[in-house]
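Thread: quick sanity check before group meeting

JM: Hey all, I'm pulling together slides for Thursday and realized we never actually wrote out the predicted structure for the chain we discussed last week. Dropping the sequence here so it's in one place. If anyone has concerns about the input, flag it before I start.
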Amino acid sequence: MKKNVTLAILSAAVIGLGPFIVSCDNVTDPAADKIDGAVGIVFPNDYLRWDNDEARFRAALTAAGVEHTILRSADSSVTEATHVANLIESGIKVLVLCPVSSADAASAAEAAHAAGVTVIAYERLITETAAVDYYVSFKSLDVGRMQGQYLIDHATGTGNPLYLYAGNQTDNNSFLFFAGSWSVLQPKIADGTFVIANSQAADGLKESATLTHDQISTIFGTNAISGTPPAMTVDGITTHWSYDDAKTLCERNLSTVNASASLKGSVFVLGPNDYTARGIIAALDGDSAVTSYVITGQDAEKDSVQSIIDGYQSMTVFKDVRTLASDAAAAVIEVLKGKTPATLGSFNNGVKEVPSVISDIVQVTAANVREALIDTGYYSASDFTGL
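JM (edit): ok, ran it. Output follows.
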């Protein structure tokens, strides 16, 4: 911070006898812009998605000279809480937390706040607590709207079978993605363009233009797929963000509708993200009664980009983690300098409006893979075949 210096000297006598006037312009304040403190970052698991985010964080924070520790929670809220406690004990000034469970992370955030730590929710909002200072994410509702609109744009006639899938009930983003999708799909479900094939709960709400959190939770269901699960009900649509769970759930859905040929053939699928979309595609490809499919995704993972090029997955929503991680790192640095990060809008976490840093999203199909992902330097053309 530079300021202009003006020294008003009235006389030698005045200088000797009293204070002189100084305006501090053009003097560099040695305390200004000083980065003071360390940051702890906790990601939910070891998925490739978080590998990419971690690399971006490390690059940005190292360049700024910020001490940082990055940990993974192995999809365990207990491990997450332990990590946060250890980071607090180590003396961090800022916590960046992408929670395993949006609600369960509230206690960890509150522990950090009680210790004077600034809490930044990353990608997934921490809910049901006032102990969240900032939220850095993409336009989650718009992700769902983009997915839903893609399905609409590729449907003709009426009676098109629609298979709905979601991420995880513990992830607040899953609700936002689904709410965004439903906002555009619902009119086309109500008018008969689509027929919901795998959720009686969703079909029962097809006249509702908007859904409450509880209604979405009912559609998500409580089915557990991993391990030795109980009998699957037709209403459970959560994939737990798992390839295996998504594949198993889709196989069970297809088996359930075997008696109704009208619910197979050319189908439309709301795939919640790329990883689960690939599992669903494996199930669809294994059913000879499914003759074609249109399926959405998000994250622009390499394997799914190749799948798009090869004509399997239909689209993905590209969320540039370079932007997200750099935005979050910039917010961290501002906080460590004692400043207030610039925000754009807010998200309600059930207790407060959380000031938010929001990044843009891009739809990617076979038609614009090169423009969106190669020309921008996100991937190299050599990463793919047939491009």
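AS: nice. Residues 120 and 238 are 27 Å apart (CA to CA). Residues 1-30, 224-234 have pLDDT under 50 and may be disordered.
JM: adding both to the slides.
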